[in-house]
Amino acid sequence: MSNSDKPGRGQRLWRWLKRPLALGIPIGVFVLVAMGASFQGVMVLSNQNAFCFSCHLSIDTIVQEYQASSHYGDGTKIAATCADCHVPHTFVDKMKVKIIATKDIYHMLAGTITKENFEEHRPAMAQSVWDTFKANDSQSCRHCHQGANFDLAAQPQRARLNHERIAERGETCVDCHQGLTHKRIVIQ
Question: Domain NapC/NirT cytochrome c N-terminal, which positions (predicted)?
């Protein structure tokens, strides 16, 4: 074999790299798909009531209040889940809330908020939720309560008049409907 027939350094390097690439690309695609599926699975599971209940049943009365509300459903109406109200529906906002919510998991594991001291922390936590609802014009409420689910003509006169004037008064759903799903907290 003459020197001109010998593969060059670049050709030898490419031949050596082709073997791992042929295997690495499918493995890489598989890993990416598995990571995407795992991420989506975590998002779905963490939006289910069972996930929320797993902590809240042990540290507060939120679950019992929700179960006694009209939002829990009675078997004939579609129930609103915890995530329907407390987790935004758009991806970026949802990710922000989920990241911020990891502090709640920390407090539960660290025992800083317990069934014994929950009520003293509750006003600040409730105010934070109300501020979020006010800041985004009660997007979570409006996600479900629209169209046929919010027919002004079917509402009693007082409710219809209040709902027609809500924007001109600079109010949003939570201004009147605090305490609808969880007990109303009086902040002093």
Answer: 26-184
Q: Could you read off the pLDDT of 100-122 as tens digits, one per residue?
A: 988 888 888 888 888 888 888 89
> In Å, what is the CA distance from 8 to each residue of 11, 15, 16, 20?
5, 11, 12, 20
The pLDDT of 154-182, averaged and rounded, is 89
Structure tokens at 87: 């987790």
Q: Which two tokens stand for residue 80?
A: 């609103």
CA–centroid distance for 15 within its chain: 49
Nearest to 130 by CA among 184, 170, 67: 184
Q: How far apart are CA 37 and CA 126, in angstroms?
A: 34
H/E stretch holding 6 reads none
Q: For CA atoms 14, 17, 19, 24, give the dihedral sign.
A: negative
* Total Cβ atoms within 10 A of residue 166: 15
What does the mean pLDDT of the chain come to? 87
Q: What is the DSSP letter of 35?
A: H
Contact 71, 180 (CB under 8 A): yes
pTM confidence score: 0.76
Amino acid at 138: S
The C-alpha atoms of residue 168 and residue 174 are separated, in whole angstroms, by 15
**Residue 178: pLDDT band with limits 50, 70, 90:** confident
Helix (H, G, I), strand (E, B) or coil at 48: coil
